[in-house]
């Protein structure tokens, strides 16, 4: 069911152990540490630096930017919606934010950005400024 590239990508992201939410006090602090360690390991060890994430102090709101290059066009904003929630929810507590990014947002960007560029929906800023 899962192709070899996905298995390889998944194997590089540490699985999480702590099942906790924001109301779980110290358990939640432990879970946040696991989340951050997983994100750092995923980005640094696999030279997979295509997004930046941060959270508020409590770890209840996450925000950031991602980027994808297609024909020298760079773009993207993070929008984790219901598209990625089912993947994440089915694998709690083992999967974390790094898993959702790599297995959800990454493949989505790889498919959608080239399509949006080809349709002219997304354009390079320099081309927009030159036309103005």
Automatic annotation (TrEMBL):
Pfam families: UFC1 (PF08694). Keywords: Ubl conjugation pathway. InterPro entries: UBQ-conjugating_enzyme/RWD, Ufc1. Gene3D superfamilies: Ubiquitin Conjugating Enzyme. PANTHER family: UBIQUITIN-FOLD MODIFIER-CONJUGATING ENZYME 1. Belongs to the ubiquitin-conjugating enzyme family. UFC1 subfamily. This is Ubiquitin-fold modifier-conjugating enzyme 1. It comes from Mya arenaria (Soft-shell clam).
